[in-house]
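Please predict the structure of the following assembly.
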Amino acid sequence: MEKNEILNQVLSVFHDVLDNEDIVLTYETTANDIEEWDSLSHIQLVVAIEKKFKLRFTSKEIQSWKNVGEMLDCIKEKVA
Amino acid sequence: MKDFSALKKNLKKDFSSLKKIKVAVLGDSATQFLCQALRGEGYDKGFDLQVWEADFNQIERQVFDPTSELYEFAPQVVILFQSAHKLLGKYNKLKPDAQGSLAFQELSAIESFQATLQSALDCKTIYFNYTEIDDAVFGNYANKIEASFLYQLRKLNFGLMEFAAKTGNFYVSDISSIQNEIGKANFFQPSVYINTEMVLSIEAIPKVAAKTVAIISAINGNFKKCVILDLDNTTWGGIIGDDGLENIQLGTLGIGKSFTEFQYWIKKLKNRGIIVAVCSKNTESVAKEPFEKHPDMVLHLEDIAVFIANWENKADNIRQIQSILNIGFDSMVFLDDNPFERNIVRENIPQICVPELPEDPAEYLEYLYTLNLFETVSYSNEDAERTKQYQVEAQRATLQQKFTNEDDFLKSLDMISVVESFNKFNTPRVAQLSQRSNQFNLRTVRFTEADIEQLGVSGAHFTFSFTLEDKFGNNGMICVVILEKEDADTLFINTWLMSCRVLKRGMEHFVLNTIASHAKEQGYKILKGEHIPTAKNEMVKDHYKNLGFEQSGEQWVLDAVGYENKKCFITIK
């Protein structure tokens, strides 16, 4: 799956979980850029993404991403 | 069941018309999501749960410090969630010779939480039991070693049940059974736990919230009282009208085992006090034949309170069942294998609960177990008699048709009532009536057994329970009145509630005669009553007016001294 296609699917998860259709994601987006994205909703996002792509992240991975792009790389590696 | 995101979306809805209940959540793991889910689930059940969440890991401080935020918040419900993971953490730190007493120590702590909470607050405690963790240190041998973690955890869960059985206002939310249902791999997600200190997975949270809100809901008088059964392919396999008595599937025939086990479940519900009714598209005599003649039927006609089999529309038939039983549609469950019938009933009677039974009857029971339809917070011996009472009511209705004069009919019933104040024998039934009665209930104050015991020792109340027996049978306790000493002259009717089974029997007159003469004997001059309207008690809005009380603002007063007994055909025993 292409990174961009993953981005689109992840975006729909963000819209649903954070209940805000206006959110826009780029590879550089971080939690600081999105008001609803806090440490708690982060876990909700992670679990929803795991469900969507049918994969599991390790505890370390969840803590390691610096921005959306790194998360997408991690997903890409697992679905490849 | 809604997922966590859907429950969270509820939080943005309008709670203003819902009943407010203050709920405190104290946990030793992260509980933010649980709190959100509780409030969201509460919305769907008609409650505005005002949830206060204690800071992380503060149970002891909040409970034992009388000046803590917990007591300032003054919750009506306190939820205590000590997780199995933290229990394992405590166990790990114990010296080996102390590990065998973990359950005992924890239970003592829980008992003192409960005692402290009850001494300071008017609240119900909901305690989460422990989800099983096998640390696999002993393997199967853990079952033989008292000091093993698994042994201690299970002992603690059992100890909780024993404690709950003898302790008022203390309820166990059985989250261990949720883990059994969905599996530990789904209930607990290690990466989430490591990153957030949350021991419940996002998938488990809505189920835990539902299980917990079900208790709160039942405490507030919302629970199921009746199950209505379809027959063909629901109660037995096949179609009695086509297949005939010897070919319907029950017992060892075909997939009969599914239906036999289903019937045993219904029978247990009936024995617990759930009213069982039948609503079937059939010729009545054909539909009754298996109940009378089939050797593998578990349910018999005497288990069925109302039996309706005809070719009319099921929604109309269920309305008829409702009018005979006189209970709300929202306290009924309708079980039918046919999606078409289910939809007709759902569309016409939206309040009724209509489970979407699986296609394969083999899965009926497992599916029904997961719905937790029959939550309750009380149980008394009278529950087991309830079906009989409704059947007797049907006989009375037949007799009444023979009399043209109401008084002659009432006289012919030979009615007797036992009047007693509350005592340890009738307390469970008093509590239960206060929770179950919605229609004939003037102020809808709910009492638990512990509340009732408190009333008995307060010195500020006179309490009355009434039974009603007639030549057809004993209805048991059907009416409760609590009088509160307002001042030297006035008794306030804090509670007057009655079972709708005994409407139109002159019981209201009998009760008023009893309490008015009691008031007079005790030197009081005025009886004061009040009607607090709810969605369900419209039936008694003119209750005091009809009994001759005079309106005084929002309340009603009666001159007890000048009161003359009203006509009534009930004898006091």
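The radius of gyration of chain A is 11 Å. Chain A touches chain B at residues 16-17, 19, 39-40, 43-44, 46-48, 56-59, 62-63 (CB under 8 Å).
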